[in-house]
Amino acid sequence: MTLSIFSSTSPHLEASNLTAFAQNGLERQSEHRDEDSLKRALSVEGAHLLAFAGDKLILKHDGQVLDPLFAPYELAELKPDFENAVLLGFQPSGEPRIAVPILSAVEDLASHFKPTDARSLYRDELIGEELLGEVAQGVSLIHWNADNRFCGRCGGRSESRSGGYKRVCTACEHAIFPRTDPVVIMLTIDEENDRVLLGRSPRFPEGMYSCLAGFVEPGETMESAVRRETLEESGIAVGRVAYHATQPWPMPHSLMIGCFSEALSRDIVIDDLELEDCRWFTRAEVRAMVDMTAADGRSAPLKGAIAHRLMIDWLDWPA
Amino acid sequence: MTLSIFSSTSPHLEASNLTAFAQNGLERQSEHRDEDSLKRALSVEGAHLLAFAGDKLILKHDGQVLDPLFAPYELAELKPDFENAVLLGFQPSGEPRIAVPILSAVEDLASHFKPTDARSLYRDELIGEELLGEVAQGVSLIHWNADNRFCGRCGGRSESRSGGYKRVCTACEHAIFPRTDPVVIMLTIDEENDRVLLGRSPRFPEGMYSCLAGFVEPGETMESAVRRETLEESGIAVGRVAYHATQPWPMPHSLMIGCFSEALSRDIVIDDLELEDCRWFTRAEVRAMVDMTAADGRSAPLKGAIAHRLMIDWLDWPA
User: Fold this and answer.
1) Which residues of B fall within a CB distance of 8 Å from A253?
2) Which residues in chain A have their CB less than 8 angstroms from residue B216's CB?
3) B3 pLDDT band (50/70/90 cuts)?
């Protein structure tokens, strides 16, 4: 047996492709964004728009179906802010997809418009997987543009450029680009005792336990961030770290980096600023949690969450 | 043979630990940063400071050695800006390490102070590996603080908090946190013909070829970013993607994510906005480039660069 540099997984079965928000079939044409890209895209017959009130996607509700796709003329009553719209990309057919923030207040919207956050869209399966991926991209970029209306260097007003992928200060010309925050999320495995480390934040739904996680800080590798966060939150020392999958997480613009990590110690010391509980779970316990059959009511994050993926892929690992 | 979830690599030999800027032994105590952390650290006997003029580290040069570590009293003549200093962390001995921006102009510095950028520190091996890791952390955080003196939401003045890991607007109280930009960098392999894809940006030193690379965009997985960037820059379709290593890259605050990727096509179409050349290289050609023995003068990025790591680890893969 030779060790291939690649696992035997085909792209369609790769773990990243099995997470929520990861399916996004748009062709971004990132090298060809210029000052006219957005205007050109808006003028294309058949262009469809996603409308956002803050981080919430507006769904049209006709009594039967929920539809997030607006034709340009349908947006008028929502006061679209085209100055801060974002060209997400193009369907294989050439149809442009554009994210547009609206200026109407949520409380002034007609009742057939339903503002819905990305978490609910995913949890309640309100739209298809590909649209969910486009919404993730849209939320992140709309949020970033809204958070950067002024220049961080001089306080001057900034303007959107390159189809929403750049902002330039009107006073000092300082240019900034969209932000994506890498977060490590890790399933730490005690191989000797065949169990894994899970914790509970006080912000979680009742009974839910998940993988520990934290932002990668400037000047860290992925592996050093996994070791630091695990040690700080649980007191557990980590040895080897194996990358498993990534997931775009639009709350508001994170990149979740999912890893397996090897426990080198066993005694947990909880950081009670972050966690209200942290403990080892056996294979049978984790199976019951992901299957939602745990007698004690404990549960895992929902299907599609990268923590769920890490748990079921550990359970199913061909050992 | 069972397939372990972990490769057989021990943490000290993991590819990420063999890249420049990755060695950083500081204990960050990230969960315990508060409004007094920096002040407390500055008052500790034996605290050492790294001084930055913009993105440049100040080295003290006594005619023989280059020393980047300042005692607090040594900084006075450089006009230290302690309001925007950053507590990097603590040595195992408990000694704090603090990054401090200076207000003196570079051209006004006495001749025994040498402002040096992170790239030169690494290329010319001017300081040890652990210090290089601390400098990477320092540059990124000093740069981020300097780029965010004003609030992006309202244009108000912001203030540093939590030891330099948070800025809060004095007008609207909007809080922001340090930024780290994930970048994918990939060695694309044509397995059938045992060769790899490398390109040349017009900004590279003469003769240098490297892996293709690009920022991960909001709403992408690592794997989808690898496929998009490779397709856009070279026209090559990518199938499987394997994570290899990460590297902190302080120009100014990136996280390089190094991958191997599988070529599904062979015909290159160069994006001439980004690259001035892009071609396939055989195993013998890559070996000569990393060994600096190529008769045509072509070369690889320097040892310590993650692209160099990807090349030599491909050459040495046990196939």
Assistant:
1) 218
2) 180, 255
3) low
